[in-house]
Design a protein that fits this description.
single chain; mainly alpha; 112 residues
Length: 112
């Protein structure tokens, strides 16, 4: 039991849960782009449009939360998890969300 206390503390940490949701939103977008770029009938113009579409998606994500981030916010306050005491443990600080997304946008723009 004691060896799982650290894991339990992480899973009760709001920052960890929201970071996880952010990573899922980011990875979903990157996966969509990656799979689209692997298509057999892709040319440079289509590839550029796909990258621009992903850049736009990440820019939107900077301004508002993604699908999984919103779901996590709903779940944390829902009746389903009312018995779990979610905490804002400042020992495990959340990711710098905006800076992370801006860096992704910048790096994608360099690929154009």
């Amino acid at each position: 039991y004691e060896k799982y206390l650290g894991m339990a503390a992480r899973l009760e940490n709001v920052y960890f849960i929201t970071d996880l949701a952010l990573m899922i939103d980011i990875l979903n977008e990157i996966s969509l782009l990656s799979n689209a770029l692997k298509a057999s009938k892709i040319d440079i113009i289509k590839a550029e449009k796909l990258v621009i579409r992903s850049i736009t998606a990440f820019q939107i994500l900077i301004k508002k939360k993604g699908i999984y981030e919103r779901k996590v916010d709903e779940l944390i306050t829902s009746e389903t998890f009312k018995n779990i005491k979610f905490v804002e443990n400042h020992q495990f600080v959340g990711l710098p969300r905006e800076r992370l997304l801006e860096n992704i946008v910048t790096n994608l723009q360099k690929r154009l």
